[in-house]
Amino acid sequence: MFKILQKTFRVGAATADYPRVAPHLAEQFRGCPEFDFNLWSDARPAAAACPTGAIALSDKDGVRTVTVDYGRCIFCGECEQASAASAGQISPVRMSRQFELAVTDRRDLVLTAEYGLRPDGTHAELRLATSSPGQEDPRKRIAAAIETMLGRSLSIRQVDAGSCNGCEQEIVALNNPVHDIERFGIHFVASPRHADMLLVTGPVTRNMELALRKTWAATPDPKVVVAVGACGISGGIFGTNYATMGGVDAIIPVDVYIPGCPPRPQALLFGILLALGRVRQRLGSVKS
Amino acid sequence: MTSFFEELREHFPRQVHAVGEPVSGQVTILLNGPDITEMVRHFLTEYQARLVTVFAEDRVNAEGVFYNYYVFDRVGDPSWVILKAPIPKDQPSFPSLAAELPSVNWQEREIQDWFGLEAVGHPNPRRVALHDNWPDVHPLRKDFPLDTVLPPFEGEQHVYRPAYGEGVFHIPVGPVHAGIIEPGHFNFTVAGEPILYLQLRMFYTHKGTEKLFENISIERGVFLAESVSGDSAFSHATAFCEAVELAAEIEIPARAQFMRTILLELERIANHIADAGAIANDVGFVIANAHAGRVRELVLGLNETLTGCRVLRGMVAIGGVRRDWQQGQVEAVEDTLKVVEREFRDLVAIVQSSNSTRERLENTGILRPEKAKLLGIVGVGGRASGVDLDVRRDHPYEAYRHLPFRVPVYQAGDVRHRLLVRIDEVGESIQIIRAAAALLPEGPHRAPVQRIPSDRCAMSAVEGWRGEILYWVRTGEGNRLERCKVKDPSINNWPAIVESMEGNIVADFPVINKSFNLSYSGTDR
Asked: Considering the entire predicted model, what is its pTM?
């Protein structure tokens, strides 16, 4: 007993004060890719290199529409490498250190650019670059209702609807003393009947669909659903196939989307706090 | 090896069609038909061999037959032996081994579900990978498209073995559990507190992964392999790359071999530390788990420095690794290990100082060595029950042949000894990493990869932190795979949990389950 106390005192406080203080990130950390649409002379290598189809092209009448979907991105960095090889020194695609990517509107995760095309398939001029402006979603009022009703406490039931267990590892890390989610009055509960929030990972498999629906129905209103990770948002690398139905919102309504593969614990915290209206969304159109 | 071939031909003149070694260390014996029963018996008794896995392949379009593959491992022989048994398409059945070899129970039923090949004589031939209410489809047949849309769920639910008697009842648990873990269904039959038996139902996270491998490029396949079992992302993706590299005869640079080895061991350390904490936590010793969570963060921080990702994704590639290390990154390895070693030693001391914790772990969830051997248990769970297997030592890959290490083996087979295996292995892994970092060769980190030739087969094995991970591939045209078999150690080890639960109380289930800590997603794919 004495040894245990001695160790506790010697270690001291391990908790990092995120989001008040920016977290320590390794220099090599890869956040989401960022795109300099003006510099981007050819999106084809990046699209070809993307393992999940997060970068998609459609060419029509001499115009190329490039869409980038952070809801599919696994932050692997292949698009940066592929674009650097084709464009010379400076890559128009750069892996940033940004991980606070959670949004309340799925469309805020999608960037679009339109280019005129040269005969060789490279880009002539940038015609339009936009992130789709999301609409105010009525479901967000539910989050506000929870905030009013419960003050600053929140109970989460985590549901693995088919995940590879990558997201679960980082969700478990929220409970360790470094990330310590309980300092926000947030804790994980054993039953959906005790929960205000379902934190759902995917892709939703055919074999888990019914269990997910039942869990959602068993959670009392008002409730918030958060879709975690590329697979939870879009099906990720699995997409949809005979055994998977894609993202969580194919089955139940989703209020907040947290990109990542897996999202690091701070990214998860950011998304959960976003659902509670305790941080402001960074991606897409800024909403008040 | 030649004498082994001759002996086989002599013993089984009718069965053996051809013998070859298409990949060094992987002896393939082509048979004349599906009847392997006699040969398997001979392998098990005469050669003391172990049946590692059984899987099937649809070659109806190319060769007019299905194949069943039986992979054997012989003690003291670094070569794998693979029996390849053709199954005619108009007679889609094969003799089941499950009655004698419980270790292939689920794997044979997978073949039934996925390929529509009947396992004749299987003691429990019900569906396993596709749940009861799936329509009659066989997704791994070539004529089944990946994106087939199946009708919504209908029909009967799974029937569990009933139990009768005064005070005897069922406790159904899952697939949505109380903790933050993967989905599976556990059906306990109890008489009061003690458990009479446990019935498992898995495959809730079946994602069509093996089928998907056949439909994407090999480069994309590396990322898919990272998502087979997320806590073993690096081990799975490395095993995938090794299988492709062996098939395509790609020689990877020495530097990449050492880098992969270091990262494989870091994955082991991070998970073993987490498990040490979680095992303590499941018997109510929360402070140990808090320390474990903190120490694990140090390892994940190092992972991020070395790969850009806390869980080692986006690093391994066909031909080596995607990113080289600067001197500073290599120095970070020792800087972190020094702290991790000290902190882990303190954590172990704290866990072992608690008598009440020890009492809960000792003699809980015992898996006897003879049972472990019969059930074909591998990895941590096996080594705690006398099964002395470790791919790193028995079939060395990457840089392991250059690095000395000890494989801890215990006989007691309870939760405490599964914890001890992990504790010992963390120490060994730290030494492996130190030695590998000291020997880290200069040179390129990735070999240039030309076109992958088609119709080549190869198998790879990696000792993940749970145990033996196996990939078998057949390459196809256009940089694709015709078949990719994935075997996570979990598929071998679920029966160990069933076995070790009997006679224990329900309250000990979480800690027993955690002491094996199997991958649901790796099982279900």
From this structure: 0.95
